[in-house]
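Chapter review. Work through the record for DUF2971 domain-containing protein before attempting the end-of-chapter questions.
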Amino acid sequence: MTNTSYEEFMGIIKSYPNDLIFYHYCSPETFLSICSGKKLRFSDLNSMNDHLENIWGYNIWIEVANDLLQAEEIHKDFIDRIDSVLHMASFTFLKLACCLSKDGDVLSQWRAYASDATGYSIGFSANDLLKMPVRILKVIYDKEEQKKIVKAFVKAIFEVENSKATHDSQDFEDICTEFAVNLSCFKNSAFNEELETRLIHIAVLDTSDENNPKYMFGGGTANGKECENYDIKYRMNGSVPTAYIDIDFFYDSNPIKEVILGPKNQAHPMGVILALNALGVKDVKVKQSEASYR
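C-alpha cells for DUF2971 domain-containing protein:
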C-alpha cells in the first residue's frame, strides 16, 4: 500500500530490532538534566520550530477528502462525520512530543538543536523507549505517501462502517480520534533530513470544573505497570504559555546506549563517561562527531 505500514502510522509497535537507536540532540545543559534527572521533556507540538505543525496533517486530510468526494468514492455525510471528530480532538486532546532522529550525527541537526554543535546527541534504545507511556510515530515527509495513507484509512473505515448492521458511534469516534492524533506524524518534505521519530503523549482536557478546564496527564503504562500521574506544567515560549511534561525513561535498565559529542563540543569522551557513571548511567559508548564544523 505505502512505505509505511498501518501499525507504524497508528503507533502500534510491539518491538524494534535490538540494535535500533533513536537520537535526541540537545544543549550541554539539557544533556546534564536528562542524564541526572532521567526524564525526557514532552512539549506542546504547537511550540515546535515548524509553524505548520498539526496544520500540515489536517491539510492533507482535506486534500484527500476533497479527492474522494470528487471521485464520488465516499459520500459527504461520512466525510463530515470524520471531520467533526478531528475538530473535537484538536481541542480535547493535547499532543505533547519529544523529537528524536534515526541519525545521531547530522550537521544541520547539530546546528539547529545542539547549541550550534557544542551539545550532545543522546542515543536511546528504541525498545526501551517502548516501556514509556507514549506512542512512537515515524515521521513521514513524502506528500504522496501521506495522501495514500489517509486515503487507505478513510476507505477502510468507510467499508467497515457500511458492513455493520448497527453503527457504534463510540468505536467510530475512538478510531477517528486515533487518526487525528497520528496525523501529527506528517511533515513538510523540507524537514526530511531530520529523519524524525516522535514520542507522543496525549494529555486530556479535564472539564469536570466547567468554569476552569485544564489539561491532565493521559495515563498509560510504564514498564508494563500502570503509570504514575504526572503534572502538566507550563513554561513561557516568548510570550506564549506552553504546556510540557517530564516523563521518566529509566526503569529496570539504562536505555542510553550511546552519546555523541557535537563537532564543537570540547569535552573529552572519557570525561563524559566518568560523569555518566557517577550519575548511574553506565555502559554507554561515547564518541566524537565525525562532522567537521567550527
